[in-house]
Amino acid sequence: MRRFRYYAPNSLAEASRLLRELGETASLFAGGTDLLVEIREELRTCAHVIDIKKIPDLHELSFDEERGLRVGAQTTAREIEISPVVRTRYPNLASAVAALGSIQVRNRATLVGNICRASPSADTLPPLIADGAVLTIWSEDGERSLPIERFFVGPGRTVLARGEIVAGVTIPPPRPASARIYIKHGRRKAMELATVGVAVSVDRHAGACADVRIALGAVAPTPIRALRAEAALRGNRVTPRLIAEAAEIAMSEATPISNVRASAGYRREMVGVLTRRALEAVTGAPQ
Amino acid sequence: MTRDLSITINGEEREFAVAEFRSLLDALRNEIGLTGTKKGCDVGDCGACTVILNGKPVNACLVLAVEADGGAVETIEGLQAAPDKPSPLQESFMVHGGAQCGFCTPGVIMMAKALLDDNPEPSEHDIRFALAGNICRCTGYTKIFDAVRAAADEMRKAPAP
Amino acid sequence: MNIGLSPAAWKRADADLTIVGRSVKRTDTLEKVTGQARYAGDLALPGMLHGKIKRSTIAHALIKRIDASKALALKGVKAVLTHENVPRVLHYGSPHPRSASVTKDQYILDRKVRYWGEGVAAVAAISEEIAEEALALIEVEYEPLPAVFTLEEAMAEGAPQIHDNGLSGNNVLPTVVVTRGDVEKGFAEADLILEGEYHLGRPTPAYMEPNVCVCRWDGNGKLTVWSSTQTAFMVRGALSEVLGVPLNKVRVIVDHMGGGFGAKQDLFQHEFLCALLARNTARPVRMEFSRKETFLGGRSRHPGVVWLKQGFSKSGAITARQARLTLNSGAYGSHGPGVTNVGTAALTSLYRCENVDLVGRCVYTNSPIAGAFRGYGVVQTYYALDLQMDEAAERLGFDPAEFRLMNAVREGDIAPSNHPIVGHGLEDCIRRGMAETDWPRMRKRARQDGVKRRGWGVGCEMHGSSAYPGIKEQGNAVVKMNEDGTVTLLTGTAGLGTGAHTALSQIVAEEIGVPFESVSVVQGDTDVVPWDIGAFASHTTYMGGRAAQIAAAEVKRQVLDHVAPKLGARPEDCVIRDGIILAVGTNRSISLREAVAPAKGMPAAQLIGVGTYSPRKSYSFAAHFVEVEVDTETGEIAVTQVVPVHEIGRVIHPIAAQGQIEGGIQQGIGHTLSEDYQIDLKTGRSLNPSFVDYKMPLAMDMPPIRTIILETAPDPGGPYGAKGVGEDPIIAIGPAIANAVADAIGVRFRHYPITPEQVRAALRDKKSGAE
């Protein structure tokens, strides 16, 4: 089914009403870089496309030291990629959005769309999780906030109820002496879906790891935290040996599958390599 | 359902009706008759349909025609300096062997134009990074990079009036 | 003409060339860079319908029932075709005339399905969307048959027979046997014997323009087909034969086409279906594959296995070579016979060996169809040969490039086509590459033991221009001089995008003595241009160019016969330079324009030359030198630089020739490291029919390439000594990469593509073996 009806509501309320009234075959449309592909490849039955780009006030991209980075539902990956503040304060997110498709795609694709698509391999999710991003979810009953790592249920599935719309995402301000990185592994340098993605954000204190968050992509039904690896690091002095141990633990926390892109075993092995490399990079440990 | 649209295409305001589910790519090719923009995959993977929409390069296959209503689209057909005079970028692709079968060429050139509009002095990496989403299966890219680099040099020497 | 000149005369002729050898502005590219170039899918005719193909979701089955009634009832649907209402004519999927290169094993639509994704029905509707919706409404009930996907399964005792009227045992062709000398004696004399199995992946050409055609019947029962094909006259022949229409009632037009790389020599069901839908509806129909369909219904390189055993003497000579090539043809024969023959015969050469025993087989399976693809069997067998050469060099203690030089095919050796080799092309390439890369120093530097390790490798190849002796080819050209002195070349050879038409124009301009800009080309219309076998086998410039040269020489003769008396000279004492006719040794001259201008409105003379050329064969050569970097922790292999050295005789257009080489290298890097079209080995379902998962190296991935072209062994059969270059670059790059990986990490892989996972596994095995 390639024919569909197109709606361009002027408010979140109207968009939400359409979602509720049109039911299962209605989809929100922001960048469309996944939605239109899924429709064309018959991966999704979609009779109604609800374009949210006419809704005012969803195009925010702002930063303040208090609240951090705020990104609206219409803000494109490319806008984030070239934003000086994102590049300096959130290099992990900058490299994740820059790894998403091509410039042509990123001029359309939105960060919030990438989140809502809930692909286990989505590049932006590990850094957002590692940085503790919070979603703003709109419904007719009002707004609610949800930490992003509680958003995903399975591949393509989220906790959103029908009629709920993610209006934006907020990433807390980087703490002093913190560092962050996202490393993507794929067969090509661009136009790639991650076979494994690893994000590490760390708060350092006097040679020790005060706090750390490790998020893994493409190795489970949803992006996950490597909680036990984090625990092994937290509060401890960072040594190559500790990093190797943490990487080893992260491998055991991954539950990857085998498909045409990579085998489960190789993905798990790469979790170890990439986690170690990411930890080395953010802790300044000798390589 | 069809929609009446008004889109400025290559500087000319065009009014036409199009089915609401139709892509900008299909509208350009089939409704407007501008077939220079190519369909290589129809899912945003190849860049053959790259056009500049409201100043930004996009894959026309991943844009609905209705979304471009009231906007401005530049395609390969609008790039020439005059009807019988290719732009310096187009000329450079001819001279440096940047086009072989030519199917990816319009998209590559539009992406290169977007790059040079933003960044008149691109590094080798900048050129590769900008063209990351344009698949060429004939040239091995070497001659495309040559063409873009030479065009940038040429255009800096003699900036457009 | 400069044909058959001595080397000294070649040199003198060189100095006289003014157009050949220059990178003139390609005649076809202005249209391409401005978006004006028309490809088949750009055509829109009034009242045109859109055709779509329904494809099977099972790999091997009989169609028990097919019901199109619901599809026909959908508003906007104009016609549906199934095996029940199309002509049942067995045809050649790749219709090369008078050749044993192809098989006759296809129907337009059959009641039997032989691979997952085969067309089982077709629809014409007023829009693409409606046509697609109609496909979903066609009900097909299958009776599944046991399916076989691998060579082992297809060749096993009691395996299901995929074709009823083929050879037994799912063989596409009778076993190919090539023997020279006495291998038993050769092995007995050997000091070292190496033996290995080399496994070949399934790369596909992945040309940018999906398969497409537009068909229209006029009121006189004439069919016009605009198609993206390398072989317009072959498509015309097939349509004529299968639809029962005489050749003068079928016209095939190919203006520009978006790449083919060999695969677009075949027919892809859609030409027939589109023509029939157009006839049934009395409206033009366009049928355009999606990218996914271009994978599903397209053609790949033949996967398979090469078993290779060679004997070597301590002094570095090859004493015996024995090989068994087994190729997986997929569901239909396509070019299986040609590819098997060429690939097998190629093993008689490249590296000298007097005792060879080669056997080639090609087997049907329920897999996607393998067909013609740049490198045509030689990619497969030379990969095995050149990997084993590298191993032998190491075992015998020779430098790998020196070892190749010692064994390189020499002038006068008998080539796979049974012709003597002309010149020292391969030796020249190896020597030049060694000098350019500072090879001895590169190879001797200390082996690294860090995480990322670099290595250098070399791979060689030779490849024939033209498909002779497999196909007796013929190129034709017509050259007309217009009454203002300009020239029109009519050629049947297709414009694949290689710049061949520019090369042909250069040859014509050079031969007559007019400026390049004075020559224009008419091509791609079977009603207008002389018959042509098609653009393939690296022969377009070699064969089509030579035919154009012959035609141009004839026009020049006519012009001089006509004009010489006016200059008071004999024709043989006149020359044409840059459009001016000079009587040599006098100060008398006249411009061509003046000489042939109309008098009283009548052209001065009818000036038309016809050239026909049946080539034998020439060989081009290459040695590729490659550096790789291997990340030993992730297993990723990056090609960091390539120095390809090619000997291709006279270069007509340097930039176009370099472009062929660099493009072939891109495809070859892909084949060797990342490209593999995969199917599920339980169901035959395609696993990666998209550009996301079929991984070609792109702009960010390509290494710097420093292309070097040598002209040291021009061929007397080609125009001005030119030889082919189209296929060569894809052959040498693969073994060069694999050998560089061996240099970097000490692991010899015997297959392609070499994936990061396999690198990791091999390094683990190596480590545990060492412990």
What's the topology here?
The complex is a heterotrimer of chains A (287), B (161) and C (771).
Chain A: E1 5-7, H1 12-22, E2 26-29, H2 35-40, E3 48-51, E4 61-64, E5 68-72, H3 77-81, H4 84-89, H5 91-98, H6 103-106, H7 111-117, H8 125-130, E6 134-139, E7 142-147, E8 152-154, E9 157-158, E10 165-171, E11 178-185, E12 196-205, E13 208-217, E14 224-225, H9 227-233, H10 240-253, H11 264-283
Helix pairs in contact in A: 9-10, 10-11
Chain B: E1 2-9, E2 12-19, H1 24-32, E3 50-53, E4 56-59, E5 72-74, H2 88-95, H3 105-118, H4 124-130, H5 142-157
Parallel strand pairs in B: 1-5
Antiparallel strand pairs in B: 1-2, 3-4, 3-5
Chain C: H1 7-16, H2 29-34, E1 49-55, E2 61-67, H3 69-73, E3 77-82, E4 91-92, E5 104-106, E6 112-113, E7 119-125, H4 128-137, E8 139-144, H5 151-155, E9 176-180, H6 183-189, E10 192-200, E11 212-217, E12 223-227, H7 232-243, E13 250-253, H8 270-281, E14 285-288, H9 291-296, E15 304-312, E16 318-330, H10 336-346, E17 356-364, H11 378-396, H12 400-407, H13 425-437, H14 439-444, E18 452-465, E19 475-481, E20 487-491, H15 500-512, E21 519-523, H16 540-563, E22 574-577, E23 580-583, E24 589-591, H17 592-595, E25 608-613, E26 618-631, E27 637-647, H18 654-673, E28 708-710, H19 728-745, E29 751-752, H20 756-770
Parallel strand pairs in C: 1-14, 10-29, 12-13, 16-17, 20-21, 27-28
Antiparallel strand pairs in C: 1-7, 2-6, 2-8, 3-7, 4-5, 9-17, 10-15, 11-12, 11-14, 15-16, 18-26, 19-20, 19-25, 22-23, 23-24, 26-27
Structural notes for this entry:
The complex is a heterotrimer of chains A (287), B (161) and C (771). Chain A is of the alpha+beta class and 287 residues long. Chain A has 3 domains: 5-51, 2-Layer Sandwich (Uridine Diphospho-n-acetylenolpyruvylglucosamine Reductase, domain 2), CATH 3.30.43.10; 61-171, 2-Layer Sandwich (Uridine Diphospho-n-acetylenolpyruvylglucosamine Reductase, domain 3); 178-283, CO dehydrogenase flavoprotein, C-terminal domain (Enolase-like, domain 1, 2-Layer Sandwich), CATH 3.30.390.50. Chain A is 33% helix and 26% strand. Chain A has 11 helices and 14 strands. In chain A, the strands form 4 sheets. A 5-stranded antiparallel β-sheet of chain A has the order 4-5-10-6-7. In chain A, strand 2 (26-29), helix 2 (35-40) and strand 3 form a beta-alpha-beta unit. In chain A, helix 9 (227-233) packs antiparallel against helix 10 (240-253) and helix 10 (240-253) packs antiparallel against helix 11. Chain A is globular, with a radius of gyration of 19 Å. The mean pLDDT of chain A is 96. With 161 residues, chain B is an alpha+beta fold. In chain B, helix 2 packs across helix 5. Chain B has 2 domains: 2-78, Roll (Ubiquitin-like (UB roll)), CATH 3.10.20; 88-157, [2Fe-2S]-binding domain (DNA polymerase, domain 1, Orthogonal Bundle). Chain C has 771 residues and is of the alpha+beta class. The model of chain C is unreliable at 1-12 (pLDDT under 50). The chains are: A alpha+beta (287), B alpha+beta (161), C alpha+beta (771). At the B-C interface, helix 2, helix 3, helix 4 and helix 5 of B face helix 2 and helix 18 of C.
